[in-house]
Amino acid sequence: MKASGLPICLLSAVFYLFWTPSAGLKTLHLGSCVITTNLQAMRNGFSEIRDSVQAKDEIIDIRILRKTESLQDTKPADQCCLLRHVLRLYLDRVFKNYQTPDHHILRKTSSLANSFLTIKKDLRLCLTPQAAVAKALGELDILLQWIEELA
Questions:
Q1: pLDDT of 107 strictly over 90
Q2: pTM listed for this prediction
Q3: 124 Cβ contact list (under 8 Å, min separation 6)
Q4: Per-residue confidence at 29, pLDDT binned at 50, 70, 90?
Q5: CA end-to-end span of the chain, whole Å?
Q6: 21-to-36, 37, 38, 93, 119 alpha-carbon distances in Å
Q7: What contacts 79, CB < 8 A, 6 or more positions away?
Q8: Average pLDDT score over the chain
């Protein structure tokens, strides 16, 4: 009889593992998009390389992302689209072009890029290509004003 309890114990353990929510997974509601990701794992991965990566940043008077402005400051309807574009920027420009001889940092940045790619796949396409083109051309005056203010 003692041996028959083992399969039940194993079955219970397997059931518990499959039905228990994964540690660190967080569901984010971004306007009409809902994504589930492990932000803590991404933060932990970046924290391991933060000092090395930030030490190479010699442009200290310019910020690409400001801590005072956040995705929550964006209208809910635009949050999904904005995050998708920011992730695309990081995937297409940052992670693809990052170079270092340090293999540990390369593994960590590759892991972060994979996490970003997974999130990006869960985000819906913001606008149809033609609507995006019309929107961009319609707001070209804003871009030109922004450029003019830089001068």
A1: yes
A2: 0.69
A3: 32, 33, 80, 84
A4: confident
A5: 84
A6: 11, 12, 11, 34, 18
A7: 30, 31, 33, 71, 72
A8: 80
8 A C-beta contact, residue 147 and residue 139: no
Element (H, E) at 27: strand 26-30
Burial (Cβ within 10 Å: 0-12, 13-18, ≥19) of residue 112 = buried
> What are the start-end ranges of the H helices in 66-125?
76-89, 96-97, 103-122
CB atoms within 10 A of CB 118: 14
H-run or E-run covering 54: helix 39-55
> Contact 87/123 with Cβ under 8 angstroms?
yes
The average pLDDT across 102-106 equals 96
